[in-house]
Specification:
Layout: H1 24-36, H2 42-50, H3 54-68, H4 72-79, H5 82-92, H6 95-107, H7 114-123, H8 126-140, H9 144-151, H10 154-164, H11 176-189, H12 198-207, H13 210-224, H14 228-235, H15 238-249, H16 262-272, H17 277-288, H18 292-299, H19 302-312
Helix pairs in contact: 1-2, 1-3, 2-19, 4-5, 5-16, 5-19, 6-7, 6-8, 6-9, 7-15, 9-10, 10-12, 10-15, 11-12, 11-13, 14-15, 18-19
C-alpha cells in the first residue's frame, strides 16, 4: 500500500474543539473547588479539562494563577496521582512545552526512545518546531539540536536535526515540475544506483511540504513502478528508515500495544486530540481490527480510563 491515505489537512480531524460559552473564570473557580474540597472531585476536573481546547485550557491556567496565586499544574500534581495525574498535567501544559518535555524524556537516561523522537519531529509543523525548540531552551537551558546531536548518530541524526530546524515548507501550493524533479532525484539516489545517497532522501523528505510530497510520491511511482515506501524499505535501514517511513505516513504511531505504554498513549492522545485523532482512530482500527476506544477500555481503569475515553471520543 502506498502513502495515499495520509496528508489530511492539519487541524480538522480532532476530537476536541473549542467549548461554546466558555468562561475561564467560571472554570478556574470550579476546578479550585474540585481540588480544595474534602477529597478531590475528579469528575469535575475530567469534565472541564477534556471538554476545552488547549487554547481555552491555557486561559484557565492564567485565570487560576491570577485568582489563587497558585500554578494549576502544581495543585493537580499535589492532589492527583499515577496516570491520572500525568494526563491532567499534560492537558494544562502549553503544547510546545509539553512536546519539549516529551523530547527531553525520550533522550534522558540510558538509551534513547527513538520512536518518540521520530513521532514528534515528523508530525509537527515548522512553526510548531520553532516553538518547541524555544520552549526546550527556556526549560532546559540547552539547545534541542545539541541534545539530539549527542544522543543520535549518522543519517538518522542528520534527518532529525533537519526536522528540528523547522524548515519544512508549509505551503499548500504544489509544484508539478518540482515533484517530477524530486521524484527523479529520489530514484537516482536509490533504486537507480549502486548504493544509496541518503542525503538526497533527507533533503526531499524533510524539507518539502506534505502536499508536495504526495505529488512527488505519485510521480515516483510513475518513474519507478514502485511505491516510495517499498524503495525506502529496500534501500535504507534502522532508525533512519523508520523516520523516512514515518514522514511518508505522517501519522507515525506504534499502534500495536500503544494501549499499555502510558507514556506514548498520553502523548498521542493529548498532542493529537485537536489535530488528527479521528485519523489515528481510523488507522488504529485498520491495523488492530478493534477500536482505540475498546483498547483503552480493556487496558486502563478508573478516572484515567474515563479521561482517555473522553479525549478519544465516541467508539467507532
Amino acid at each position: 500500500m502506498g502513502f495515499s491515505i495520509v496528508f489530511s489537512q492539519v487541524g480538522s480531524r480532532g476530537t476536541i474543539r473549542d467549548y461554546p460559552g466558555f468562561s475561564p473564570s467560571v472554570d478556574a473557580e470550579a476546578i479550585r473547588k474540585a481540588i480544595r474540597g474534602i477529597g478531590t472531585d475528579e469528575k469535575t476536573l475530567i469534565r472541564i479539562l477534556t471538554e476545552r481546547s488547549n487554547a481555552q485550557r491555557q486561559l484557565i491556567v492564567r485565570e487560576y494563577q491570577a485568582a489563587y496565586e497558585q500554578e494549576l499544574k502544581d495543585d493537580l500534581k499535589g492532589d492527583l496521582s499515577g496516570n491520572l495525574k500525568h494526563i491532567m498535567v499534560a492537558l494544562v501544559t502549553p503544547p510546545a512545552v509539553f512536546d519539549a518535555k516529551q523530547l527531553k524524556k525520550s533522550m534522558k537516561g540510558t538509551g534513547t526512545d527513538e520512536d518518540a523522537l521520530i513521532e514528534i519531529l515528523t508530525t509537527r509543523t515548522s512553526r510548531q518546531m520553532k516553538e518547541i525548540s524555544q520552549a526546550y531552551y527556556t526549560v532546559y537551558k540547552k539547545s534541542l539540536g545539541d541534545d539530539i546531536s549527542s544522543e543520535t548518530s549518522g543519517d538518522f541524526r542528520k534527518a532529525l536535526l533537519t526536522l528540528a530546524d523547522g524548515r519544512r515548507d508549509e505551503s499548500l501550493k504544489v509544484d508539478e515540475h518540482l515533484a517530477k524533479k524530486d521524484a527523479q532525484i529520489l530514484y537516482n539516489a536509490g533504486e537507480n544506483k549502486w548504493g544509496t545517497d541518503e542525503d538526497k532522501f533527507t533533503e526531499v523528505l524533510c524539507l518539502r511540504s506534505f502536499p508536495q510530497l504526495k505529488l512527488t510520491f505519485d510521480e515516483y511511482r510513475n518513474i519507478c513502478q514502485k511505491d516510495i515506501e517499498d524503495s525506502i524499505k529496500g534501500e535504507l535501514s534502522g532508525h533512519f528508515e523508520d523516520l523516512l517511513l514515518a514522514i511518508g505516513k505522517c501519522t507515525c504511531i506504534s499502534y500495536q500495544g500503544a494501549g499499555t505504554d502510558e507514556f506514548t498513549l498520553n502523548r498521542i492522545m493529548v498532542s493529537r486530540s485537536e489535530i488528527d485523532l479521528l485519523d489515528i482512530r481510523h488507522e488504529f482500527k485498520k491495523h488492530c481490527s478493534y477500536s482505540l476506544y475498546s483498547a483503552i477500555k480493556s487496558d486502563t481503569s478508573g478516572d484515567y480510563e474515563t479521561t482517555l475515553l473522553k479525549i478519544c471520543g465516541e467508539d467507532d
